């Protein structure tokens, strides 16, 4: 697959998602009910982060048992993580950053991939490897919308998925930016709700958020 079509693919995935929950799954048995709860609330595009020992198995279970979920892998830190994501059948990969090793591996991998950037130099390194769809992370902490608008000056063609500090209160404001395809964050899947198995609560929260954000 060419770099351009991979970029178009991840841009399309992000755009149709609007919101991408950043999932940290502690217990494997939570994976499938959580994915079902999110999908039932209209949130289909999910980022399963490689932050726990069960993350890979959790993503596999979601892919096998929740066909309506579009499962990607997040917190990809190196080429091995990227290869694991591709092998398990993830639809996309996301990283909080981008080392030269990871960017090189991602450029040759078939997996649609968004590296993370927070500065102009990081963005230039991503662009040099063919990535013009990026995660802006940590979005609020790295300067928020003002920083994103400043980056859009020299890089008007770059499209982003901001994450970090985004929640119910500011998601719509971020989505109103012309270069924002989707927003990501953990607010739709709080760990307390996952631990409590409050699947109905998660569905209700997602449905409310999607209604508000799609309308905005
Ligand atoms: C990420 O990896 O995108 C962040 O951990 C999400 O940040 P949040 O918890 O502030 O939403």
From TrEMBL:
The keyword Lyase applies. Transmembrane segments: none annotated. It is an enzyme of class 4 (lyase). Belongs to the KHG/KDPG aldolase family. Homotrimer. CDD domains: KDPG_aldolase. GO terms for molecular function: (R,S)-4-hydroxy-2-oxoglutarate aldolase activity; 2-dehydro-3-deoxy-phosphogluconate aldolase activity. SUPFAM superfamilies: Aldolase (SSF51569). InterPro entries: Aldlse_KDPG_KHG, Aldolase_TIM, KDPG/KHG_AS_1, KDPG/KHG_AS_2. It holds the Pfam family Aldolase. This is 2-dehydro-3-deoxy-phosphogluconate aldolase. It catalyses: 2-dehydro-3-deoxy-6-phospho-D-gluconate = D-glyceraldehyde 3-phosphate + pyruvate. Keywords: Carbohydrate metabolism, Lyase, Schiff base. It comes from Bradyrhizobium jicamae. Its EC number is 4.1.2.14. Pathway: Carbohydrate acid metabolism; 2-dehydro-3-deoxy-D-gluconate degradation; D-glyceraldehyde 3-phosphate and pyruvate from 2-dehydro-3-deoxy-D-gluconate: step 2/2. The keyword Cell membrane does not apply.
């Amino acid at each position: 697959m060419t770099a351009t079509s991979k970029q178009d693919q991840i841009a399309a995935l992000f755009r149709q998602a609007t919101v991408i929950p950043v999932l940290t799954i502690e217990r494997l048995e939570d994976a499938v009910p959580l994915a079902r709860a999110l999908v039932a609330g209209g949130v289909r595009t999910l980022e399963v982060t490689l932050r726990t020992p069960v993350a890979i198995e959790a993503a596999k279970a979601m892919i096998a048992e929740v066909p309506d979920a579009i499962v990607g892998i997040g917190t990809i830190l190196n080429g091995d993580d990227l290869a694991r994501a591709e092998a398990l059948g993830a639809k996309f990969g996301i990283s909080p950053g981008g080392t030269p090793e990871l960017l090189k591996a991602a450029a040759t991998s078939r997996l649609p991939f968004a590296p993370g950037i927070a500065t102009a130099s990081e963005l230039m390194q991503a662009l040099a490897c063919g990535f013009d769809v990026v995660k802006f992370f940590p979005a609020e902490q790295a300067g928020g919308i003002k920083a994103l608008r400043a980056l859009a000056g020299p890089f008007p063609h770059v499209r982003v998925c901001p994450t970090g500090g985004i929640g119910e209160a500011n998601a719509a404001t971020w989505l109103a930016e012309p270069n924002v395809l989707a927003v990501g964050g953990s607010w739709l899947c709080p760990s307390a709700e996952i631990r409590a198995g409050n699947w109905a609560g998660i569905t209700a929260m997602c449905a409310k958020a999607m209604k508000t954000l799609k309308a905005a």
